[in-house]
Amino acid sequence: MPQITLALSDIPEGVPHKPEDADVILIRAGDSVTALGHLCPHYGLPLAKGVIRDGALICPFHHACFDARTGRQAQPPGHGDLSRFAVTVADGRVTVELPADAVPHAPPAHGGQGLDTRRVVLAGAGAAAEECALRLRESGFEGVIEMIAPGTLPPYDRTMLSKAALAGKKGAADLVLTDAEGLAARDIARIDGRIAKVEPGRVTLADGGTHAFDRLLVAPGGEPIRPDLPGIDLAGIHTLRSVEEAEALSEAAGAAKRVALIGGGFIGMEGALTLAKRGCDVTVVMREDVPLERVLGTRVGRAIMAEHEDAGVRFVAGAEVEGFDGDGAVSAIRLKGGAPVEADLVVLAMGVKPATGAIEGLPLEKDGGVRVAEDLSVPGLDGVFVAGDCAHAPTPFGAARIEHWRVARQHGARVARGIAGGTAGLADIPFFWTALARQYRYLGHAEDWDEILFDGAPEDGPFLARYVKDGQVMAALTAGRDADLAALHLRMAAASGPVPA
Ligand SMILES: Cc1cc2nc3c(=O)[nH]c(=O)nc-3n(C[C@H](O)[C@H](O)[C@H](O)COP(=O)(O)OP(=O)(O)OC[C@H]3O[C@@H](n4cnc5c(N)ncnc54)[C@H](O)[C@@H]3O)c2cc1C
Ligand code: FES
Questions:
Q1: For the chain, how many structural domains are there in total?
Q2: What domain range is 250 assigned to?
Q3: Rieske domain location, by residue (predicted)?
Protein backbone atom coordinates (compact mmCIF):
# COMPACT_ATOMS: atom_id res chain seq x y z
CA MET A 1 0.00 0.00 0.00
CA PRO A 2 1.43 3.44 -0.91
CA GLN A 3 2.55 5.50 2.03
CA ILE A 4 3.53 9.07 2.62
CA THR A 5 5.79 10.13 5.45
CA LEU A 6 6.63 13.57 6.73
CA ALA A 7 7.85 15.26 9.88
CA LEU A 8 5.19 16.02 12.49
CA SER A 9 6.72 19.48 12.80
CA ASP A 10 5.92 20.15 9.13
CA ILE A 11 2.20 19.93 9.86
CA PRO A 12 0.85 23.20 11.26
CA GLU A 13 -1.85 23.00 13.94
CA GLY A 14 -5.32 24.45 13.49
CA VAL A 15 -5.46 24.40 9.69
CA PRO A 16 -5.86 21.54 7.20
CA HIS A 17 -2.50 20.71 5.65
CA LYS A 18 -2.17 19.12 2.21
CA PRO A 19 1.27 17.65 1.47
CA GLU A 20 2.28 18.57 -2.08
CA ASP A 21 2.66 14.99 -3.26
CA ALA A 22 -0.48 13.41 -1.74
CA ASP A 23 -4.22 13.72 -2.19
CA VAL A 24 -5.03 14.00 1.49
CA ILE A 25 -5.45 16.64 4.15
CA LEU A 26 -3.78 16.25 7.51
CA ILE A 27 -5.32 17.71 10.63
CA ARG A 28 -3.02 17.94 13.61
CA ALA A 29 -3.94 18.35 17.26
CA GLY A 30 -0.75 18.13 19.33
CA ASP A 31 0.85 14.76 18.58
CA SER A 32 -2.27 13.34 17.03
CA VAL A 33 -2.88 13.53 13.26
CA THR A 34 -6.00 12.68 11.26
CA ALA A 35 -5.77 12.09 7.50
CA LEU A 36 -8.91 12.78 5.47
CA GLY A 37 -9.96 12.98 1.83
CA HIS A 38 -8.95 16.33 0.32
CA LEU A 39 -11.99 17.10 -1.86
CA CYS A 40 -15.41 18.23 -0.70
CA PRO A 41 -18.29 15.91 -1.66
CA HIS A 42 -20.34 18.92 -2.76
CA TYR A 43 -18.56 20.28 -5.86
CA GLY A 44 -15.23 18.54 -5.31
CA LEU A 45 -13.38 21.71 -4.27
CA PRO A 46 -10.19 21.55 -2.16
CA LEU A 47 -10.63 21.22 1.58
CA ALA A 48 -7.05 22.38 2.11
CA LYS A 49 -8.63 25.85 2.05
CA GLY A 50 -11.02 24.83 4.86
CA VAL A 51 -11.18 26.11 8.41
CA ILE A 52 -11.01 24.05 11.63
CA ARG A 53 -12.42 24.90 15.01
CA ASP A 54 -13.57 22.82 18.00
CA GLY A 55 -13.26 19.54 16.10
CA ALA A 56 -15.24 20.76 13.07
CA LEU A 57 -13.89 21.24 9.54
CA ILE A 58 -15.80 23.62 7.29
CA CYS A 59 -15.52 23.89 3.53
CA PRO A 60 -15.12 27.59 2.74
CA PHE A 61 -16.97 27.44 -0.58
CA HIS A 62 -20.55 26.56 0.40
CA HIS A 63 -20.01 25.69 4.08
CA ALA A 64 -20.42 21.91 4.18
CA CYS A 65 -19.21 20.88 7.66
CA PHE A 66 -17.42 17.71 8.71
CA ASP A 67 -16.25 16.10 11.93
CA ALA A 68 -12.51 16.83 11.75
CA ARG A 69 -11.70 13.58 13.56
CA THR A 70 -13.84 11.13 11.62
CA GLY A 71 -14.61 12.87 8.31
CA ARG A 72 -18.33 12.36 8.88
CA GLN A 73 -20.40 15.05 7.16
CA ALA A 74 -22.28 17.10 9.73
CA GLN A 75 -23.87 19.83 7.62
CA PRO A 76 -24.88 20.12 3.95
CA PRO A 77 -24.49 20.82 1.05
CA GLY A 78 -23.23 17.77 -0.80
CA HIS A 79 -23.64 14.29 0.49
CA GLY A 80 -20.72 12.12 1.51
CA ASP A 81 -18.33 11.38 4.33
CA LEU A 82 -14.65 12.17 3.85
CA SER A 83 -12.46 9.08 3.61
CA ARG A 84 -10.26 8.58 6.63
CA PHE A 85 -6.84 7.01 6.21
CA ALA A 86 -4.67 5.13 8.73
CA VAL A 87 -1.99 7.29 10.35
CA THR A 88 0.91 6.39 12.65
CA VAL A 89 2.97 8.93 14.51
CA ALA A 90 6.32 7.77 15.88
CA ASP A 91 9.58 9.54 16.70
CA GLY A 92 8.34 12.81 15.26
CA ARG A 93 7.48 11.21 11.88
CA VAL A 94 3.97 10.82 10.49
CA THR A 95 3.10 7.96 8.16
CA VAL A 96 -0.18 7.85 6.23
CA GLU A 97 -1.33 4.68 4.47
CA LEU A 98 -3.08 5.58 1.23
CA PRO A 99 -4.74 2.61 -0.52
CA ALA A 100 -4.24 2.57 -4.31
CA ASP A 101 -8.00 2.83 -4.81
CA ALA A 102 -8.41 5.67 -2.27
CA VAL A 103 -11.29 8.05 -2.95
CA PRO A 104 -11.62 11.45 -1.24
CA HIS A 105 -15.14 10.76 -0.06
CA ALA A 106 -17.90 8.18 -0.30
CA PRO A 107 -21.67 8.19 0.20
CA PRO A 108 -22.56 7.30 3.79
CA ALA A 109 -23.65 3.71 4.40
CA HIS A 110 -27.38 3.20 4.03
CA GLY A 111 -30.01 0.52 4.26
CA GLY A 112 -33.29 0.00 2.45
CA GLN A 113 -36.83 -1.01 3.21
CA GLY A 114 -37.32 -3.72 5.82
CA LEU A 115 -40.10 -4.97 8.04
CA ASP A 116 -41.00 -1.54 9.45
CA THR A 117 -44.55 -0.78 8.26
CA ARG A 118 -44.37 3.00 8.79
CA ARG A 119 -44.93 5.11 5.68
CA VAL A 120 -43.13 8.38 4.95
CA VAL A 121 -44.47 10.43 2.06
CA LEU A 122 -42.36 13.26 0.65
CA ALA A 123 -44.23 15.88 -1.40
CA GLY A 124 -41.39 17.11 -3.60
CA ALA A 125 -38.18 15.78 -5.15
CA GLY A 126 -36.04 18.84 -4.48
CA ALA A 127 -33.40 19.93 -2.00
CA ALA A 128 -35.32 19.32 1.24
CA ALA A 129 -37.08 16.12 0.17
CA GLU A 130 -33.93 14.45 -1.18
CA GLU A 131 -31.90 15.26 1.93
CA CYS A 132 -34.67 13.87 4.12
CA ALA A 133 -34.96 10.65 2.11
CA LEU A 134 -31.21 9.99 2.10
CA ARG A 135 -30.81 10.77 5.79
CA LEU A 136 -33.72 8.50 6.71
CA ARG A 137 -32.08 5.53 5.01
CA GLU A 138 -28.66 6.43 6.46
CA SER A 139 -30.07 6.47 9.97
CA GLY A 140 -31.54 2.99 9.53
CA PHE A 141 -35.19 3.84 8.84
CA GLU A 142 -36.68 0.73 7.21
CA GLY A 143 -40.22 1.90 6.49
CA VAL A 144 -41.73 2.86 3.14
CA ILE A 145 -40.44 6.11 1.53
CA GLU A 146 -42.43 7.61 -1.32
CA MET A 147 -41.08 10.70 -3.09
CA ILE A 148 -43.97 12.25 -5.01
CA ALA A 149 -43.40 15.15 -7.42
CA PRO A 150 -44.51 16.06 -10.94
CA GLY A 151 -42.46 14.39 -13.68
CA THR A 152 -40.02 11.54 -13.46
CA LEU A 153 -36.71 13.37 -13.05
CA PRO A 154 -34.67 12.36 -10.03
CA PRO A 155 -33.63 15.14 -7.62
CA TYR A 156 -31.28 17.63 -9.30
CA ASP A 157 -29.14 20.64 -8.45
CA ARG A 158 -31.47 23.58 -9.05
CA THR A 159 -28.81 26.15 -8.12
CA MET A 160 -26.98 25.36 -11.37
CA LEU A 161 -29.92 26.42 -13.52
CA SER A 162 -28.97 30.10 -13.59
CA LYS A 163 -25.27 29.26 -13.80
CA ALA A 164 -23.79 26.32 -15.75
CA ALA A 165 -27.15 25.20 -17.24
CA LEU A 166 -28.05 28.65 -18.59
CA ALA A 167 -24.48 29.08 -19.80
CA GLY A 168 -25.04 25.93 -21.88
CA LYS A 169 -22.21 24.14 -20.05
CA LYS A 170 -24.33 21.54 -18.22
CA GLY A 171 -27.38 19.57 -19.33
CA ALA A 172 -30.12 17.92 -17.26
CA ALA A 173 -28.10 14.72 -16.79
CA ASP A 174 -25.16 16.62 -15.29
CA LEU A 175 -27.34 18.14 -12.59
CA VAL A 176 -28.77 14.90 -11.17
CA LEU A 177 -27.99 14.36 -7.49
CA THR A 178 -29.22 10.83 -6.69
CA ASP A 179 -30.05 9.04 -9.93
CA ALA A 180 -32.81 6.45 -10.45
CA GLU A 181 -30.38 3.64 -9.59
CA GLY A 182 -29.35 5.36 -6.35
CA LEU A 183 -32.97 5.88 -5.36
CA ALA A 184 -33.78 2.24 -6.13
CA ALA A 185 -30.77 1.05 -4.11
CA ARG A 186 -32.27 2.85 -1.13
CA ASP A 187 -35.85 1.72 -1.83
CA ILE A 188 -36.98 5.30 -2.31
CA ALA A 189 -39.97 5.19 -4.68
CA ARG A 190 -39.97 8.17 -7.08
CA ILE A 191 -43.64 8.70 -7.99
CA ASP A 192 -44.90 11.10 -10.68
CA GLY A 193 -47.70 13.15 -9.10
CA ARG A 194 -48.72 16.45 -7.59
CA ILE A 195 -50.05 16.67 -4.02
CA ALA A 196 -53.40 18.49 -4.01
CA LYS A 197 -54.80 17.81 -0.54
CA VAL A 198 -53.47 16.98 2.92
CA GLU A 199 -55.72 15.22 5.44
CA PRO A 200 -54.88 13.32 8.62
CA GLY A 201 -52.95 10.24 7.53
CA ARG A 202 -53.32 10.65 3.77
CA VAL A 203 -52.60 12.86 0.80
CA THR A 204 -54.65 13.14 -2.38
CA LEU A 205 -52.90 13.80 -5.67
CA ALA A 206 -54.18 16.08 -8.45
CA ASP A 207 -55.19 12.95 -10.43
CA GLY A 208 -57.34 11.73 -7.52
CA GLY A 209 -54.98 8.98 -6.28
CA THR A 210 -54.39 8.75 -2.54
CA HIS A 211 -51.33 7.80 -0.49
CA ALA A 212 -51.46 6.96 3.22
CA PHE A 213 -48.71 8.30 5.50
CA ASP A 214 -47.51 8.12 9.07
CA ARG A 215 -45.21 11.07 8.41
CA LEU A 216 -45.56 13.59 5.57
CA LEU A 217 -42.94 16.10 4.47
CA VAL A 218 -44.36 18.87 2.29
CA ALA A 219 -41.49 20.49 0.37
CA PRO A 220 -42.88 21.78 -2.93
CA GLY A 221 -40.47 24.72 -3.18
CA GLY A 222 -41.44 27.94 -4.88
CA GLU A 223 -42.96 29.00 -8.17
CA PRO A 224 -41.88 32.11 -10.05
CA ILE A 225 -44.27 35.05 -9.84
CA ARG A 226 -46.07 35.69 -13.17
CA PRO A 227 -47.87 39.02 -12.90
CA ASP A 228 -51.29 39.23 -14.48
CA LEU A 229 -50.34 41.97 -16.96
CA PRO A 230 -51.42 42.58 -20.58
CA GLY A 231 -49.32 40.48 -22.96
CA ILE A 232 -47.97 38.10 -20.28
CA ASP A 233 -48.83 35.07 -22.46
CA LEU A 234 -46.82 36.25 -25.48
CA ALA A 235 -44.15 33.84 -26.71
CA GLY A 236 -40.63 34.68 -25.56
CA ILE A 237 -41.54 35.37 -21.90
CA HIS A 238 -39.77 32.85 -19.68
CA THR A 239 -39.34 31.90 -16.05
CA LEU A 240 -36.42 30.00 -14.52
CA ARG A 241 -37.16 27.43 -11.86
CA SER A 242 -36.95 23.97 -13.42
CA VAL A 243 -34.49 22.17 -15.65
CA GLU A 244 -37.03 22.24 -18.49
CA GLU A 245 -37.37 26.02 -18.14
CA ALA A 246 -33.58 26.45 -18.07
CA GLU A 247 -33.22 24.39 -21.25
CA ALA A 248 -35.95 26.38 -23.03
CA LEU A 249 -34.43 29.67 -21.93
CA SER A 250 -30.92 28.63 -22.87
CA GLU A 251 -32.07 27.64 -26.35
CA ALA A 252 -34.04 30.88 -26.82
CA ALA A 253 -31.04 32.93 -25.67
CA GLY A 254 -29.01 31.49 -28.55
CA ALA A 255 -31.30 33.20 -31.06
CA ALA A 256 -32.34 36.31 -29.11
CA LYS A 257 -31.23 39.78 -30.16
CA ARG A 258 -32.19 41.62 -26.98
CA VAL A 259 -32.79 40.01 -23.59
CA ALA A 260 -34.50 41.77 -20.69
CA LEU A 261 -34.74 40.36 -17.19
CA ILE A 262 -37.36 41.80 -14.87
CA GLY A 263 -36.17 41.84 -11.27
CA GLY A 264 -33.06 42.89 -9.37
CA GLY A 265 -32.89 39.83 -7.08
CA PHE A 266 -30.50 36.88 -7.10
CA ILE A 267 -32.03 35.04 -10.08
CA GLY A 268 -32.18 38.30 -12.09
CA MET A 269 -28.57 39.13 -11.28
CA GLU A 270 -27.19 35.63 -11.93
CA GLY A 271 -29.25 35.22 -15.10
CA ALA A 272 -28.22 38.64 -16.45
CA LEU A 273 -24.54 37.97 -15.99
CA THR A 274 -24.65 34.44 -17.41
CA LEU A 275 -26.50 35.68 -20.50
CA ALA A 276 -24.19 38.68 -20.91
CA LYS A 277 -21.21 36.31 -20.77
CA ARG A 278 -22.86 34.31 -23.56
CA GLY A 279 -22.76 37.44 -25.68
CA CYS A 280 -26.43 38.46 -25.31
CA ASP A 281 -27.45 42.12 -25.21
CA VAL A 282 -28.89 42.26 -21.65
CA THR A 283 -31.03 44.80 -19.79
CA VAL A 284 -32.28 44.42 -16.22
CA VAL A 285 -35.57 46.18 -15.50
CA MET A 286 -36.19 46.61 -11.78
CA ARG A 287 -38.45 48.44 -9.37
CA GLU A 288 -35.67 49.30 -6.94
CA ASP A 289 -32.83 51.76 -7.59
CA VAL A 290 -30.10 49.32 -6.60
CA PRO A 291 -30.20 45.52 -6.99
CA LEU A 292 -30.23 43.34 -3.86
CA GLU A 293 -30.42 46.48 -1.71
CA ARG A 294 -32.97 45.07 0.72
CA VAL A 295 -30.93 41.94 1.47
CA LEU A 296 -27.34 43.17 1.21
CA GLY A 297 -27.58 46.94 1.68
CA THR A 298 -27.11 49.86 -0.72
CA ARG A 299 -23.32 49.91 -0.85
CA VAL A 300 -22.91 46.23 -1.72
CA GLY A 301 -25.86 46.44 -4.14
CA ARG A 302 -24.17 49.36 -5.94
CA ALA A 303 -20.90 47.43 -6.15
CA ILE A 304 -22.72 44.45 -7.70
CA MET A 305 -24.51 46.78 -10.13
CA ALA A 306 -21.19 48.27 -11.23
CA GLU A 307 -19.73 44.79 -11.78
CA HIS A 308 -22.70 43.93 -13.99
CA GLU A 309 -22.36 47.19 -15.92
CA ASP A 310 -18.70 46.37 -16.51
CA ALA A 311 -19.87 43.09 -18.04
CA GLY A 312 -22.16 44.99 -20.41
CA VAL A 313 -25.49 44.67 -18.51
CA ARG A 314 -27.72 47.77 -18.65
CA PHE A 315 -30.13 48.68 -15.87
CA VAL A 316 -33.49 50.43 -16.04
CA ALA A 317 -34.02 51.25 -12.35
CA GLY A 318 -37.10 52.53 -10.52
CA ALA A 319 -39.29 50.97 -13.25
CA GLU A 320 -42.84 49.63 -12.95
CA VAL A 321 -43.80 47.14 -15.65
CA GLU A 322 -47.20 47.82 -17.17
CA GLY A 323 -47.40 45.10 -19.80
CA PHE A 324 -45.77 43.51 -22.82
CA ASP A 325 -46.02 44.45 -26.50
CA GLY A 326 -45.71 42.06 -29.39
CA ASP A 327 -47.50 40.29 -32.18
CA GLY A 328 -47.55 36.64 -31.07
CA ALA A 329 -44.08 37.02 -29.60
CA VAL A 330 -42.85 39.67 -27.18
CA SER A 331 -41.08 42.68 -28.70
CA ALA A 332 -40.99 45.15 -25.79
CA ILE A 333 -41.72 45.66 -22.09
CA ARG A 334 -44.05 48.58 -21.46
CA LEU A 335 -43.21 50.71 -18.41
CA LYS A 336 -45.41 53.08 -16.43
CA GLY A 337 -44.31 56.60 -17.38
CA GLY A 338 -41.13 55.43 -19.08
CA ALA A 339 -39.86 54.49 -22.53
CA PRO A 340 -40.51 50.84 -23.50
CA VAL A 341 -37.62 48.41 -23.25
CA GLU A 342 -37.20 46.48 -26.49
CA ALA A 343 -36.68 42.76 -25.99
CA ASP A 344 -37.40 39.59 -27.96
CA LEU A 345 -36.62 37.46 -24.89
CA VAL A 346 -37.93 38.35 -21.42
CA VAL A 347 -37.11 36.55 -18.17
CA LEU A 348 -39.50 37.08 -15.28
CA ALA A 349 -37.23 37.15 -12.22
CA MET A 350 -39.71 38.90 -9.96
CA GLY A 351 -39.37 36.52 -7.04
CA VAL A 352 -41.03 33.24 -6.17
CA LYS A 353 -44.02 32.36 -4.04
CA PRO A 354 -44.37 29.13 -2.06
CA ALA A 355 -45.83 26.41 -4.32
CA THR A 356 -48.55 25.71 -1.76
CA GLY A 357 -51.41 27.53 -3.50
CA ALA A 358 -52.89 24.37 -5.00
CA ILE A 359 -52.47 22.23 -1.87
CA GLU A 360 -55.61 22.09 0.27
CA GLY A 361 -55.42 21.46 3.99
CA LEU A 362 -52.29 23.40 4.96
CA PRO A 363 -52.49 26.41 7.31
CA LEU A 364 -51.06 29.07 5.00
CA GLU A 365 -49.61 32.40 6.02
CA LYS A 366 -50.40 35.46 3.86
CA ASP A 367 -47.34 34.83 1.67
CA GLY A 368 -48.25 31.17 1.09
CA GLY A 369 -45.64 29.86 3.53
CA VAL A 370 -46.41 27.59 6.48
CA ARG A 371 -45.35 28.45 10.03
CA VAL A 372 -43.62 25.45 11.59
CA ALA A 373 -42.13 24.49 14.96
CA GLU A 374 -38.41 23.98 15.67
CA ASP A 375 -38.61 20.39 14.35
CA LEU A 376 -40.43 21.70 11.22
CA SER A 377 -43.68 20.03 12.25
CA VAL A 378 -46.91 21.88 11.48
CA PRO A 379 -48.75 22.68 14.70
CA GLY A 380 -52.19 21.04 14.67
CA LEU A 381 -51.41 18.64 11.80
CA ASP A 382 -50.26 15.37 13.28
CA GLY A 383 -47.23 13.86 11.52
CA VAL A 384 -46.96 16.66 8.94
CA PHE A 385 -43.75 18.65 8.36
CA VAL A 386 -43.02 21.52 5.98
CA ALA A 387 -39.47 22.27 4.84
CA GLY A 388 -37.43 24.32 2.41
CA ASP A 389 -38.64 27.44 0.62
CA CYS A 390 -42.19 27.08 2.03
CA ALA A 391 -41.28 26.81 5.71
CA HIS A 392 -41.53 29.84 7.97
CA ALA A 393 -39.21 28.24 10.50
CA PRO A 394 -37.34 29.17 13.68
CA THR A 395 -33.66 29.99 13.10
CA PRO A 396 -31.03 31.11 15.63
CA PHE A 397 -31.62 34.62 14.17
CA GLY A 398 -35.40 34.66 14.53
CA ALA A 399 -38.17 32.94 12.57
CA ALA A 400 -37.83 33.37 8.81
CA ARG A 401 -38.81 31.89 5.48
CA ILE A 402 -35.49 31.49 3.70
CA GLU A 403 -35.33 30.51 0.04
CA HIS A 404 -31.86 28.99 -0.21
CA TRP A 405 -30.40 25.60 -1.03
CA ARG A 406 -28.35 24.83 2.06
CA VAL A 407 -31.18 25.84 4.39
CA ALA A 408 -33.59 23.52 2.54
CA ARG A 409 -31.09 20.68 2.96
CA GLN A 410 -30.67 21.47 6.67
CA HIS A 411 -34.46 21.30 6.97
CA GLY A 412 -34.59 17.93 5.21
CA ALA A 413 -31.94 16.54 7.56
CA ARG A 414 -33.79 17.92 10.60
CA VAL A 415 -37.06 16.29 9.58
CA ALA A 416 -35.28 12.96 9.05
CA ARG A 417 -33.82 13.24 12.56
CA GLY A 418 -37.28 13.91 13.93
CA ILE A 419 -38.66 10.81 12.23
CA ALA A 420 -35.83 8.33 12.66
CA GLY A 421 -33.66 9.77 15.42
CA GLY A 422 -29.98 10.64 15.09
CA THR A 423 -27.70 13.30 16.49
CA ALA A 424 -28.28 16.99 15.93
CA GLY A 425 -24.59 18.00 15.66
CA LEU A 426 -23.70 21.60 14.81
CA ALA A 427 -26.35 24.33 15.11
CA ASP A 428 -28.15 25.05 11.82
CA ILE A 429 -26.68 28.43 10.85
CA PRO A 430 -28.25 29.68 7.58
CA PHE A 431 -25.89 30.23 4.66
CA PHE A 432 -26.18 30.92 0.95
CA TRP A 433 -23.99 31.72 -2.01
CA THR A 434 -24.51 33.47 -5.30
CA ALA A 435 -22.21 33.35 -8.31
CA LEU A 436 -22.00 36.85 -9.76
CA ALA A 437 -18.90 38.66 -11.07
CA ARG A 438 -17.41 37.31 -7.85
CA GLN A 439 -18.52 34.48 -5.60
CA TYR A 440 -20.58 36.14 -2.87
CA ARG A 441 -21.29 34.14 0.29
CA TYR A 442 -23.70 35.08 3.05
CA LEU A 443 -24.00 33.73 6.57
CA GLY A 444 -26.72 34.14 9.21
CA HIS A 445 -29.89 36.11 8.63
CA ALA A 446 -30.59 39.84 9.01
CA GLU A 447 -33.88 41.39 7.91
CA ASP A 448 -32.68 44.77 9.10
CA TRP A 449 -29.62 46.13 10.83
CA ASP A 450 -28.32 49.16 12.76
CA GLU A 451 -25.06 49.28 10.81
CA ILE A 452 -22.93 47.36 8.36
CA LEU A 453 -19.28 47.09 9.39
CA PHE A 454 -16.97 46.73 6.38
CA ASP A 455 -13.56 45.17 6.51
CA GLY A 456 -12.25 45.92 3.02
CA ALA A 457 -14.20 47.79 0.35
CA PRO A 458 -16.84 45.98 -1.73
CA GLU A 459 -16.10 48.34 -4.65
CA ASP A 460 -12.52 47.33 -4.74
CA GLY A 461 -11.18 43.90 -3.79
CA PRO A 462 -11.94 41.31 -1.13
CA PHE A 463 -14.20 42.39 1.73
CA LEU A 464 -16.17 41.09 4.69
CA ALA A 465 -19.35 42.95 5.69
CA ARG A 466 -20.98 42.32 9.05
CA TYR A 467 -24.66 43.22 9.56
CA VAL A 468 -25.00 44.33 13.18
CA LYS A 469 -28.18 44.74 15.22
CA ASP A 470 -28.13 45.63 18.93
CA GLY A 471 -24.38 44.99 19.06
CA GLN A 472 -24.72 41.45 17.66
CA VAL A 473 -23.51 40.19 14.28
CA MET A 474 -26.69 38.81 12.75
CA ALA A 475 -25.24 38.13 9.31
CA ALA A 476 -22.11 38.54 7.24
CA LEU A 477 -21.28 38.69 3.57
CA THR A 478 -18.02 38.19 1.78
CA ALA A 479 -16.42 38.15 -1.61
CA GLY A 480 -12.85 36.90 -1.52
CA ARG A 481 -12.57 36.43 2.25
CA ASP A 482 -13.94 32.90 2.39
CA ALA A 483 -11.78 31.63 5.24
CA ASP A 484 -12.84 34.56 7.44
CA LEU A 485 -16.51 33.88 6.77
CA ALA A 486 -16.04 30.16 7.43
CA ALA A 487 -14.34 30.96 10.75
CA LEU A 488 -17.24 33.25 11.67
CA HIS A 489 -19.62 30.42 10.82
CA LEU A 490 -17.95 28.12 13.31
CA ARG A 491 -18.06 30.88 15.95
CA MET A 492 -21.79 31.32 15.33
CA ALA A 493 -22.29 27.55 15.44
CA ALA A 494 -20.48 27.41 18.81
CA ALA A 495 -22.66 30.26 20.09
CA SER A 496 -25.78 28.71 18.47
CA GLY A 497 -26.56 32.08 16.89
CA PRO A 498 -25.42 35.71 16.70
CA VAL A 499 -22.03 36.72 18.14
CA PRO A 500 -20.97 40.07 19.60
CA ALA A 501 -19.72 42.56 16.99
C1 LIG B 1 -32.29 29.26 -10.88
C2 LIG B 1 -32.07 29.10 -9.41
C3 LIG B 1 -30.81 29.34 -8.87
C4 LIG B 1 -30.60 29.21 -7.51
N5 LIG B 1 -29.35 29.45 -7.02
C6 LIG B 1 -29.13 29.33 -5.70
C7 LIG B 1 -27.83 29.58 -5.16
O8 LIG B 1 -26.89 29.91 -5.88
N9 LIG B 1 -27.67 29.46 -3.83
C10 LIG B 1 -28.69 29.11 -3.00
O11 LIG B 1 -28.47 29.01 -1.79
N12 LIG B 1 -29.92 28.86 -3.47
C13 LIG B 1 -30.17 28.96 -4.80
N14 LIG B 1 -31.43 28.72 -5.30
C15 LIG B 1 -32.53 28.41 -4.36
C16 LIG B 1 -32.63 26.92 -4.06
O17 LIG B 1 -32.56 26.18 -5.25
C18 LIG B 1 -33.94 26.66 -3.33
O19 LIG B 1 -33.94 27.41 -2.14
C20 LIG B 1 -34.11 25.19 -2.98
O21 LIG B 1 -34.12 24.41 -4.14
C22 LIG B 1 -35.40 24.99 -2.18
O23 LIG B 1 -35.55 23.65 -1.90
P24 LIG B 1 -37.00 23.02 -1.69
O25 LIG B 1 -36.79 21.59 -1.36
O26 LIG B 1 -37.81 23.87 -0.81
O27 LIG B 1 -37.69 23.15 -3.13
P28 LIG B 1 -37.21 22.66 -4.55
O29 LIG B 1 -35.80 22.29 -4.56
O30 LIG B 1 -37.69 23.69 -5.50
O31 LIG B 1 -38.06 21.35 -4.79
C32 LIG B 1 -39.46 21.40 -4.87
C33 LIG B 1 -39.96 20.06 -5.37
O34 LIG B 1 -41.36 19.97 -5.15
C35 LIG B 1 -42.02 19.58 -6.35
N36 LIG B 1 -43.42 20.04 -6.25
C37 LIG B 1 -43.94 21.27 -6.48
N38 LIG B 1 -45.27 21.26 -6.21
C39 LIG B 1 -45.58 20.02 -5.78
C40 LIG B 1 -46.78 19.39 -5.34
N41 LIG B 1 -47.94 20.04 -5.27
N42 LIG B 1 -46.72 18.09 -5.02
C43 LIG B 1 -45.55 17.40 -5.07
N44 LIG B 1 -44.39 17.94 -5.47
C45 LIG B 1 -44.41 19.24 -5.81
C46 LIG B 1 -41.15 20.21 -7.42
O47 LIG B 1 -41.40 19.61 -8.67
C48 LIG B 1 -39.77 19.87 -6.86
O49 LIG B 1 -39.45 18.53 -7.08
C50 LIG B 1 -31.67 28.84 -6.66
C51 LIG B 1 -32.94 28.60 -7.21
C52 LIG B 1 -33.15 28.72 -8.57
C53 LIG B 1 -34.51 28.48 -9.14
S1 FES C 1 -17.53 22.61 -2.54
FE2 FES C 1 -17.58 22.31 -0.40
S3 FES C 1 -19.49 23.02 0.20
FE4 FES C 1 -19.48 23.33 -1.95
A1: 4
A2: 226-350
A3: 3-96
